[in-house]
Amino acid sequence: METLIIGQRSPRIAVSVAGRGPLVLMVHGMGGDRSTWHGQIEALRPHFTAVSVDLRGYGASGDIEGPLDFHRDFGADLLTVMDHFNAPRTHLVGLSMGSRVVRSVALRHPQRVASLVLANASPGFDAMPPDEVDRFIADRSAAFRDGRVPDSFGMDQARAMCAPGAAPEALRIAADAMQRIRLKNYLAVLEASTRQDRGDPLEQIACPTLVISTDQDRVYPEAVTRQLLARIPGAVHARIERAGHLSNLEQPEVFNRALLDFLR
Q: Which UniProt keywords apply (predicted)?
């Protein structure tokens, strides 16, 4: 597996890559980074060029500069990666917030997207009125009142998101990524993604789409999955048992099998 820093302009974007073949680009959640997809890169590399990305503000990518436009800026990061690999069309895979990023790209640049995989996903914050949005952001920011990331933040978040009994390695990978967040960037993403990801016309998604859900996801429960399946034309569904919000880490073999079956 190779690490690349790509892009001619700031912010430059870090990726992990392995394999040869059609491009599969994987996008992390709000508290993740590209390391959370390394198990999927290994599974995909015999058949695909498998790439996981650090969005701007995450991992080894450059910082967020100025106000963040959730759809435009994160979409530009993915297009930068796709252009680097000379991929006219790409299979996009996202988990949690990453699923909202790839869905946005599929709607705004449909000619560049071969298929979508939306794992532990939601349709956005359409149903949340402004006062609830304010409370949501305040609640998610409360851990950082002293202006720093608490030493226990990563593991606390990993345990809250994973199902009881999650494998120690899954918890470790998730906790390490969450502990590495750069606070200014993280808070900018929290604000922008919550306030701006509203009103996307999911009914206009035109590419093959797989929705992956889990039986113990406390962040986006089954009712949210039903909304996606009802609104995305022709979407197919894979449900993973004994997993919480981080399905690719908690049940990697089952996740990888569903992913490969769909992509093939």
A: Hydrolase
pLDDT at 9: 81
Neighbouring C-alpha atoms within 13 Å toward the C-beta of 17: 18
**Pairwise CA distance, residues 140 & 249, whole Å:** 22
User: Tokens in use for 100?
Assistant: 């909202």
pTM above 0.90, yes or no: yes
d(CA 222, CA 59): 30
Helix residue ranges, H only, the chain: 38-44, 70-84, 97-108, 130-141, 153-161, 168-179, 183-196, 222-231, 247-250, 252-263
The dihedral built from the CA positions of residue 4, 7, 12 and 15, taken in this order, carries a sign that is: negative
Domain that holds residue 58: 2-263
| Burial class of residue 231 in the structure, from the number of CB atoms within 10 Å of its CB (0-12 exposed, 13-18 middle, 19+ buried) | middle
- Counting the structural domains of the chain, the total is 1
Torsion of Cα atoms, 243 then 245 then 251 then 253, to 10°: 140
Which burial class, exposed, middle or buried, applies to 127 when counting CB atoms under 10 A from its CB (0-12, 13-18, 19+)?
exposed
Name the nearest CA neighbour of 187 among 27, 35, 64: 64
Q: What is the per-residue pLDDT across 233-264, written as a single tens digit (0 to 9) for each?
A: 999 999 999 999 999 999 999 999 999 999 99
Structure tokens at 57: 């503000």
The string of pLDDT tens digits covering residues 2-29 is 999 998 888 999 999 999 999 999 999 9
Cα of first residue to Cα of last residue in the chain, in angstroms, is: 22
Place of tokens 């000379």: 86
CATH for 95: 3.40.50.1820
Structure tokens, 239 = 């449900």
